[in-house]
Every structure is written in C-alpha cells, then in structure tokens.
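Example record used in the benchmark description.
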Amino acid sequence: MKQINRREFIKYSASSTAFVLGMSLSVTGQASSAGRDEPESEKKAGFSPNLWLGIDRDNRCTITLPESEMGQGVYTGLATLIAEELDLDWSQIVVERATSSRVYGYQLTGGSTSIRDGWVMFRKAGAVARYMLVQAAAKIWNVKMSDCYSDQGAVFLKGGNKKFKYSELITQANQLAIPENVQLKESAEYKLTGRNNSRIDSVEKVNGKAVFGIDVQLPGMLVATTVHPPVFGATVGRVDDSQAKKIAGVLKTIKIDNAVAVVAKDYWSASQASKALKIEWLYDNERLDDKKIKQKLHSALENAGVVAQQLGEIETGDVAENNQISAQYSVPLQAHVTMEPMNCTVHIHDGLCEVWAPTQSPTAAKEAAEEYYSNLVSRAWGKVKSIFSETARDTVLVHTTYSGGGFGRRLKQDFVAEAVQIATHFAQPVKLIWSREEDIQHDRYRPLALCKLQAQVGEDGYPKSILHELASPSIRESLNPGYIDIKNGMDSSAVEGARHLPYEIENHKVVYKYVELPVPLGYWRSVGSSINAFCIESFIDELAIKAKKDPYQYREELLQFNPRILATLKAVAKLSGWKQDADAFYGIACHSSYGSHVSSVAKIRRINNKFKLSNMYSVIDCGQNVNPGVVKAQLEGSIIFGMSALFSEINIVDGRVEQSNYHDFPVVRYDQAPDISCEIIQSTEDPGGAGEPGVPPTIPAILNAVFAATGERIRDLPYRSSL
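Model output (structure tokens):
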C-alpha cells in the first residue's frame, strides 16, 4: 500500500477543481431541500469522516461528487475511487451532487481532469473511512487492527466468523480521531478499479427517470426563448412585438442585455412568437465574412509572432530543395452542437434565486446568476449594489443537472445569465430554452487556424528540424478580454499539441501568431490539439511518403525514445492488421494530450466504386484506467466526434453564421459510422484523461487513409467528399 499523509491530502484537495453550488441533485434527479452550506453527506449519513462520503444506518454509502455528468461516466469513475479504498460492495453506492458549501472549492469539469484531479483525493477519502471503521471493529473485539480486514461493506475478524457491517460501527467510528496517515492500495490489490463496474447513471437513463436541464419541471413554470442579434457586433434596437402578443399563451417580451426574450406558457408558443417579432438590429456597415477572415489569417501568418517553444536551432539559410519540405494546412470554425441545446430554469422566491442548469461549471453559473440577482436585490431594497452583493452570493443556489453533452460549450454561462434576467420579471419559475438555430448561430466556436510546417530532412528522410507556424485567434482573449497572455501575443491553449511533440526531433520551433477576430470563441473537445494534431500528423505522413517509407514504420522510428506512445502505435498496427488487407487503404496517426497517448488507424475500402471508411481502430494509454468500459466508450465517442468535424464547418456570410441546424451542420449518423475497435494499454501509471485524447488523431488518420486510397492530400478542412 502507498502511504499518504494529511499534508499531501490537503495539497491534492486544494488543487482540485471541485466546487458545487446550490442544493444537491442526486443521481435519481431528486432535489434536496437541505440547508445551503451543510455538506450533504453530514445530513444523511451516520458516519461521515470527510466531505465526500457518508455511511447511513442502512449500510448505504452516499458519495458526494463535485463534477458534472455529461455522459462521460464521471460519476462512475469517481465513485469507484472511493469505493475501492473503502472496500464497498458496488450495490451499496448512492451518488449525489455536492451542496453549495464553499468548502468544496472551485468546480469546473473540463480538460479531461476529473479522474486526474480526483485520483489521490477521493482514494484518500475512502481510505480514511476504511481505516476508522476497521479501527472501531478492532476496539470492540479487543484485537489488533491487523487481525481485521474489510470487504464488501463490512469488517471481518481473520480466522473467525465475526463481522460487522459498516453501519453497525457508526457510533464507535464517530468517536475516533481522523488519522494523519493512511495506506492507499497498490494496483495489485484493486478489486473495483480497472473493472467494468456498471455505470451508476445507466438505469435511470434507460428508464427515463434521469433529469437533464431541459427536463426540469416546476409547478406553475413558464417557458422562454431568446432571439439574438444575427450579425456579430449588432445590438438590439426597436422591438415590435404586436404580432407576437397575438399568439395564444404568450405573456411578455423582454429586452435582456443583447437579446430579446419571449415568455409564454409553453415552448411552442414562445417559439412561434419569437419568429413573429420584428426587431431592428443596430450594426455598422463593416460585415465579417469568410473571405475577410482568411485574409486576416494569411496576413497574420506573415507576422513575426511569438515563439511558443524552441528546441535547438532552425536553419534559415539556403537549403537544398530536396532536403526541405513545407506544407500549409487550415481548419475552420467548429460548433459544439450538443444534443441538448442551451437551457436553464430559474425561480426567484422568498429571497432566494434557485438555478437549475446543465452546466460544466456551477461556480461560474452561480457567479453569473449573482451578478443579475444582486442588481434585483439592490433595486428592491433601494440600496447601493455593493452593500448587498454578499447577500446575493448567499442566496443563489445552483442545481447541476445531467447534461446532454458539453464538449466545452457549457463552460460559458451566457444562457444562465439570460435565464436569471428573464426570471427577475416573474414570481413563477421560468425555463429558458434556446432553439437549435440559436444554439448553433450563437455558439462559442472552436477557432479556425492556418498552419505552415517546414521540415529539413536528412539523407535518411527523417526530419532534422521542424518549424511550425500557427495563425489563429485566441479562445482565452475571447472569453476574457485583456487576458494577460495575449499582451505578450500568446495563448497557450492555441499551441496545445504543437509543443512537446512525442517524436525525436532535435530542432523544433513553434511560433504562435495572434489573429484578432470578433467571433465568440470557446473551448471545444480537445481544444488546440484538435487543430495541431491534424497539421502535424498530416505533415509527418507527407515526410514519410517523400522518404518512400511506410507511414507506420516512419513513426515507429521517430518514437523510439517515447515508449508509452510507441506501445500504442504498435498495438494499433496489430489491432488493425496494418496493410495486411490488400483490398484496403490504411492511414495512421498518433498524438499525446491530457496526460494520455492515443494511436489511431483508419481503413478505407472501395465499395460499389465508392470509397467507404469501413473501420476505425484506436489504442489508448491513459495510465491506470478506472473503468475500461467507460474509457472505450469515450474513445468511440471521440472518433465519431472527430469524424463529424471532418465534414462540418461554420461559415460567416455577411456578418452572420450561415449554418442553423443539422441539415447544414452535419454530424455523423448511425448509418455513416464505421466499425470501431478500441484497446487500452494496461498501465499502473497515474491516470491521464480519457474524454478528449481520442479526438486529435482521428481526422489525420482518416485523411492519411484518403491519400493512400486516392493520392489526394487533403490540407484544408472540411473534407468535401463523402466516405
């Protein structure tokens, strides 16, 4: 067992991104009516040695989790960490959302961090409880702790038939001091970790009892929808709602920040009324479009930029033409298109602002709600806003529901801010639902980018140096204008996946060139790696072809000093039967991100004289995997997500987003999906991410297979042909 002391535990806990606000929403969707700041485990449990768990008199263990469940299986994963160390039977576990107590810290679910951040903290929580329960049993039996062992929610006496259920030890355990040091299990001792334990959220999602944000129902609830300016930079002018008000069920139209809301008794009425509004939009004559955006990118690529990484020296003098290879790649804006559009329910009552939202950051949601609720409090009390800002913070509760996909979109709380603004006009609860069209046309988009890569190769065909120049707008500057890194011309998220390549290349330079663009940007599944992996892995393939070497063997040679990703490369080649099928065309790519390593192979066949992507193969090394079924599901989802991005784009025409729904922003459908095979490299290294690392190598693997099949090198996305 590994020993961890209290100081280390505090360090891991403090660095966690855990913070849940509002009254808890259990996995069964039941909202708790408990107090605002009391940890939920202490309210329901008989024995609760820390914030994260409590054991009741029925021997159930309530595990309180601070992450948002968006389909990625985080409830199952984090509960496993506690259950493993506490030696629980899987059937004992009840998972619920944490309360609004500030002791939980700052919550944000993103960046494939949940298991990585919770790896020590939640295991420690379970180990502390296990130690105290075993200690309690030993005291009762008057034996040494070493004479006892725990298993399946009970403590047993070695060599005898005595046992106590954990629930029978509550009184004694509560009298014990919390230990300074506890032993964590070694990987060889795991009973639950690394096994396919059933997903905690599966049953209620199958039987329809799961509550997503859009499912929230409250007595007397009204429904709203919003209309945003169609052109970037436009503002709301005059609003003629005379026709909208004639629609049955419509109650009110409201100007909020930079949108117009329609409130009705039901969504259909609100939706129809929103289409009947006549709104004067105010904007200047300078309209953005794709052509102007591309000009900005090409112009920026000629700038000096900022060096994001430099290893060795890049030669700038004359180089023999046959020793220098360069290529330019581009990727478009991308939308998130979560299956569940943006929505939020707010009820302001009895001095309380309650929020129900499918959010990736309840902290940010609470802050957004506080801003507008504090304004209401100030107006109502006729006092200076600052006097009551603390009051607003104490009376805003956020219930985090299930989310129908997140992918980074729900990190931005614009939909929460709008819902609170609307709700301040009503005594009844109000649910805001964005239409699919509003959701796509007013997203926070993945940036577009233009990349130029230049390599100097040796006589053996392998790169002696690579220069990677990247022109792209900044997500961080868009979300937080004046972002400190941009003052130096740098956004580290833009160069994710471009720096720290896994390949053995002695001289490597990455230069970031900031592009100012008035398009709202946001984090998107795998962020910068989704851009840079396409460019780098396409370029590596081009170098291999130029050197007349097999793309798999070429990469294998360059990865000799990076054994973990090399193992995934070899494994995926074996899994796919690399080039063993003479009638198929293969493409390969690999990438490291979020502490994990993934290699992918695409297989294309000619069927009825058309090329068809028949198979995708993916192998991941994510360190110690907690639940292989969940990890494989994430890999499969990542492949489909990446495939969708291969064929889709957001276009700007006359200052507005052209796409509006799935008919012109396609996602991969069931009948278009290839057969997918995934494997996990068994490892005892600390966990890496699983939700995002599978996305980056997907597109280059497919397009490298396209080249193998057609001889056409695709350097500009989206891909215009079908597969």
